[in-house]
Task: inverse folding
C-alpha cells in the first residue's frame, strides 16, 4: 500500500509538471490560439456569394470591360466556412460582380472620413482629401481604401432659420453676427446701430441667400 501511495503521488507530480510545460509552451508562442481578425466580419455557414470581401480571396482580372458583369474564381480564407445555394459546404466558388475599381463606386457604397478644418462656406467652395473605405458587402477591383477629394460639408449646429430671424428682429444690435460667432462684426453693428440700418438690411439679404454663414466655416443645418 505504501508503494502504491508513493507511485500515485509521483504520477500526480508528473501530471502537474506536464500541465505546466504545456501552458508555458502555449504562452511562449509555440501554439497560436488567436482568432484571425477578419473572422469578426465573416458569418458562419452563410452563403459564399454574400461573404464580405475580407473573408475571401479572388483571382481578379483587371482587363475586364468597365460596367460589364464579370465572374471571378474565389476561395474562402482559413477558418471561414460558407455554403452554396444548395447549402453544401464550399471552399471555392464563383463570384458575380460588376467590373469597376473601388474608387469608381457610387458614393453609397463607401464611407469617407470627414474634416472640420476646411471652410464649407466659401467661394469657390473648398475641398479636402478624404480617406474612403468600401463597405464590407461591396466587391470591387483594386484597393478597398483610397483617397478622394470631397467638398467640405460639415456643420457646427448653426440654424439658418435662427440666424435669419435674429437678423430681422435684432440685427441692429448685431445679434445675428454674435450668433454666428462673428464677434468683431457683431460689436461693429452694436456700436454703429446696425450701420445706421444699412448694414442691418444688407445682413438680412446676405444671410437670407446663405452668403454669410458661421464663423467656423461650417454649413447651416
Result:
Amino acid at each position: 500500500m505504501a508503494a502504491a501511495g508513493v507511485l500515485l503521488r509521483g504520477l500526480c507530480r508528473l501530471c502537474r509538471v506536464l500541465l505546466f510545460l504545456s501552458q508555458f509552451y502555449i504562452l511562449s508562442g509555440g501554439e497560436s490560439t488567436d482568432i484571425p481578425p477578419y473572422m469578426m466580419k465573416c458569418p458562419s455557414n452563410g452563403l459564399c456569394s454574400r461573404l464580405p470581401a475580407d473573408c475571401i480571396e479572388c483571382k481578379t482580372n483587371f482587363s475586364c470591360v468597365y460596367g460589364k458583369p464579370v465572374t471571378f474564381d474565389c476561395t474562402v480564407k482559413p477558418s471561414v466556412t460558407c455554403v452554396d445555394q444548395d447549402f453544401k459546404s464550399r471552399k471555392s466558388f464563383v463570384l458575380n460582380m460588376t467590373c469597376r475599381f473601388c474608387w469608381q463606386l457610387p458614393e453609397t457604397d463607401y464611407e469617407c472620413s470627414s474634416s472640420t478644418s476646411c471652410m464649407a462656406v466659401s467661394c469657390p467652395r473648398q475641398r479636402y482629401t478624404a480617406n474612403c473605405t468600401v463597405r464590407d458587402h461591396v466587391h470591387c477591383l483594386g484597393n478597398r481604401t483610397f483617397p478622394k477629394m470631397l467638398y467640405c460639408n460639415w456643420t457646427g449646429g448653426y440654424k439658418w432659420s435662427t440666424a435669419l430671424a435674429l437678423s430681422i428682429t435684432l440685427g441692429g444690435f448685431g445679434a445675428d453676427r454674435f450668433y454666428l460667432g462673428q464677434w468683431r462684426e457683431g460689436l461693429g453693428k452694436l456700436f454703429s446701430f446696425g450701420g445706421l440700418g444699412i448694414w442691418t438690411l444688407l445682413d438680412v439679404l446676405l444671410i437670407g441667400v446663405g452668403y454669410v454663414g458661421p464663423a467656423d466655416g461650417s454649413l447651416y443645418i
Q: What stands out?
A: The chain has a mean pLDDT of 83.
